[in-house]
Specification:
The structure is a homodimer of 138-residue chains.
Chain A (H helix, E strand, L loop, with lengths): L4 H8 L5 H12 L6 H11 L5 H13 L3 E4 L7 E4 L6 E5 L5 E4 L2 H13 L2 E14 L5
Parallel strand pairs in A: 3-5
Antiparallel strand pairs in A: 1-2, 3-4
Helix pairs in contact in A: 2-3, 3-4
Bound molecules: manganese (II) ion (2 copies) and zinc ion (ZN) (2 copies).
Chain A binds a DNA duplex (30 and 30 nucleotides) through helix 4.
DNA sequence: AAAATTAATGATATTGATTATCGATTTTTT
DNA sequence: AAAAAATCGATAATCAATATCATTAATTTT
């Protein structure tokens, strides 16, 4: 594990309130990719007074500060996860919805090359793989 | 060029009405990736009586029939294009919004490999590159 | 070919996620 | 401590997309 979101906020000068700190903590502890409703549920368990508006505001703030990243997977609502130094992409099980993270340096390199070939500098990319589990027993 | 959308409908047994035929024609002639509002504008010029509801219904029908494909690029509304045999991905100019199509067989292969490595069969994928134009005169 | 049935359309209401507003509360600055 | 600024909770507004429903068009049955 790396820096906690709270520490990142300190570092980046993002002011923390009790509500933000709680959202930060819950997101730091999450190992999945919760959407806002799910996140709201989790923080509500600890602070039942928190407003869904604050959750929306805070993930947006954190995203704009480069602390969280937002995913818009096929057809669903926006999901969030902590942004750490190691970039990764996602393989999504179309049956179960399970999300597997992966990195493929070769693909990353080729993406840059494609952009260059067209006269562009790559500034961002989105790679999502959708798959079905293979039958392992023969 | 390949088959027209109207012909594809015939082939796939998708019933055509005047409105659907018009939407099919406009989409077949499009070389870009219009969203529903833009498409509605284009067909309205020819048939001012057409309803936006019909446009929404028809792109959905065509998509479910494998005739159109829907793109959900970052932050915007859904965009559509005709689905032809040759698959391609997109490089988006973040300044101008211009969309460049590309195919990279190497990336395509590697994606399959990544899925396999995790015990999955790749059934779909989304690859979007976001770039800024390079300064060519240097 | 007329009647009955089914499908598609246009207009509009509804939904669902997200953003905006606004008065109240908390925090920071004078 | 008063004034100003920031954040909050509650809720209204927005926006894309879907659902509803009465009307019109197409298809099937008599
Ligand atoms: Mn992830
Ligand atoms: Mn395209
Ligand atoms: Zn990547
Ligand atoms: Zn591809």
């Amino acid at each position: 594990m790396t820096d906690t979101i709270e520490q990142k906020c300190l570092l980046k000068g993002v002011k923390l309130t009790d509500q933000r700190r709680l959202i930060a903590k819950v997101m730091s502890e999450a190992s999945d990719h919760p959407d806002v409703d799910e996140l709201y549920k989790r923080v509500s368990k600890i602070d039942p007074k928190i407003s869904i508006a604050t959750v929306y505001r805070t993930v947006k703030l954190f995203e704009e500060s480069g602390i969280l990243t937002k995913h818009e997977f096929k057809g669903g609502k926006a999901r969030y996860e902590e942004l750490n130094e190691g970039h990764h992409d996602h393989l999504i099980d179309v049956k179960s919805g399970e999300i597997i993270e992966f990195v493929d340096e070769e693909i990353e390199e080729l993406q840059k090359k494609v952009a260059e070939k067209h006269g562009y500098t790559l500034v961002d990319h989105k790679l999502e793989l959708y798959g079905v589990k293979k039958n392992l027993n023969k």
